[in-house]
């Protein structure tokens, strides 16, 4: 997704001058797919691996290496694993700050995931990072016959509600979290989006782009609105966010929505995750008809799981929710080099409609 690349760019300056993690003893981690051997897996899994066969490799910001493992045990059956990390040395050499993304997800699985008792996450069997790498060994979701989320068609309300339950589980458990609670977690999301805004005019005015209101095609105005939104977020709603909670970062377990790809976690307003998910999951007509029912369900689930008691009648709640649809500016300006047209079109048009329906630009501009 566009934001993940921008996030890496925005943290480049700090990454090149300091390290996020103080590593006293550097673990020896594989740097290429071929380094993922039976011996290495035996060592990190603390279980003798007889054979390890690489089935396929999925390139991306983080590379996913799918491996079939047979343990050296009587009646052992082959096990499908996904080894995720920075296995493209050329990419890391070109953008050394990309390592921060791998480290961030490792730290999520090691430091945050064990606390989330009401969340259903991909099974992680081992996760570690060094100053130059970050690797997670997890279940192969595709081999487990789970399906993956797509914006190609509108989601059902039950699918959206199970996703909302998962976000409420994350938010309730981390409500009121402070930067000091997670010193390894840098806050670079805002700067990442503002960095992308430098190409906004060029992208939204190019041929073959989705239809969005003309007044949203003004780079200077949109940038100013984003800056004001970032500066006016209500700290009352701070918690740990998934950060990139659109439908393509989900998978479904027996029809229930679950979230994956935890590389953009940060501390911020809970309604960022909520609006970003709702706005992209539902077609425009369904969102207009049901969004406040879904938001009410989120608030009740949040309270049920130990979070605060909030109400749709609270003006601060409604303001924060409406403003948070600005998370959708990322898909609106996503170039086709990053995502295909059949992804960009529904996402951009859905978020633009939500911004228009809630008069978000005017709402933010009217703030003191």
TrEMBL record:
SMART domains: CHK. Coiled coil: none annotated. Gene3D superfamilies: 3.90.1200.10. This is CHK kinase-like domain-containing protein. It comes from the Eukaryota. Residues 136-308 form the CHK kinase-like domain.
């Amino acid at each position: 997704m566009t934001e993940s690349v921008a996030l890496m760019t925005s943290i480049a300056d700090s990454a090149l001058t300091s390290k996020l993690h103080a590593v006293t003893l550097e673990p020896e981690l594989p740097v290429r797919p071929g380094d993922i051997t039976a011996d290495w897996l035996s060592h990190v899994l603390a279980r003798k691996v007889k054979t390890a066969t690489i089935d396929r490799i999925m390139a991306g910001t983080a590379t996913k290496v799918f491996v079939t493992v047979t343990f050296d045990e009587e009646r052992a059956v082959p096990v499908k694993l996904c080894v995720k990390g920075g296995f493209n040395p050329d990419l890391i050499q070109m953008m050394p700050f990309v390592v921060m993304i791998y480290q961030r997800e490792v730290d999520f699985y090691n430091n945050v995931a064990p606390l989330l008792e009401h969340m259903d996450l991909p099974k992680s069997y081992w996760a570690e990072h060094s100053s130059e790498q970050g690797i997670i060994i997890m279940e192969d979701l595709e081999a487990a016959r789970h399906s993956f989320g797509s914006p190609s068609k509108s989601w059902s309300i039950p699918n959206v509600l199970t996703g909302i339950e998962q976000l409420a589980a994350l938010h309730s458990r981390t409500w009121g979290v402070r930067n000091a609670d997670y010193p390894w977690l840098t806050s670079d999301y805002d700067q990442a989006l503002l960095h992308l805004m430098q190409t906004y005019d060029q992208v939204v005015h190019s041929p073959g782009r989705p239809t969005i209101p003309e007044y949203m095609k003004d780079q200077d105005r949109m940038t100013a609105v984003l800056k004001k939104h970032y500066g006016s977020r209500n700290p009352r709603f701070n918690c740990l966010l998934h950060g990139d909670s659109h439908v393509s970062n989900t998978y479904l377990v027996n029809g229930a929505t679950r979230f994956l790809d935890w590389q953009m976690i940060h501390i911020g307003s809970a309604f960022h995750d909520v609006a970003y998910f709702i706005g992209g999951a539902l077609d425009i007509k369904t969102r207009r008809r049901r969004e406040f029912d879904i938001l009410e369900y989120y608030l009740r689930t949040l309270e049920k799981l130990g979070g605060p008691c909030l109400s749709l009648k609270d003006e601060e709640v409604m303001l924060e929710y409406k403003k948070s649809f600005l998370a959708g500016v990322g898909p609106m300006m996503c170039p086709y080099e990053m995502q295909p047209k059949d992804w960009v079109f529904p996402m951009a048009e859905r978020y633009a409609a939500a911004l228009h329906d809630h008069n978000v630009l005017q709402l933010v501009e009217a703030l003191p």
